Amino acid sequence: YYAHDKLDDFISTINSHLQPLFMQIRKGMSEMDGRAHYALVNLAETEITKMASDYTENELELFRKTMDLIILSENGFASSTDILNLADQLKTKKMKKKEAEQMLKVFVEDKWLSERNGEYTLHTRCIIEMEQYILSNYQDVARKCNICHSLAIQSQVCESCGIGIHLPCVRKYFRAQTEPRCPQCNDFWSCDIP
To answer: What is the pTM of this model?
Structure first.
């Protein structure tokens, strides 16, 4: 039996039973289409070591450097060319471009990255599971969405006050407004509404 208005209560009950196991079900939003996603998150380890059992040290280094490119970019994406150019700059062990290309496919299959037209971004699973890691390790650039208060990798930024809003949140928030204004400073929202 499923009562969608009781889902939050249901998850809260499950989480109270998962707490002694240092696990939690967390809700996140797809930055592509705004749909809700849920992930079972291990709270006992540091965020980046959750991946460690599945990947070698140089594969993890490639992922960290890819994450740097994505988070430090203006649009939340990194090109496959830029990522593949990192392969021979790894400190742990150099990687051939073909190996790096294969690893990108694995990161996409394992839902750490998403790919669209040769551009990579963080998958919803990655954002949910690594939100605290990203917020603490990228304090100067990581921002939370002003509308839903979740980590925003792909977002629009107000030119006046600098707040960020997820693209799906931008769509919803400005849908009914004829002249879009920033929810923080009330200045005109100059970005294109998707």
So the answer is: 0.80
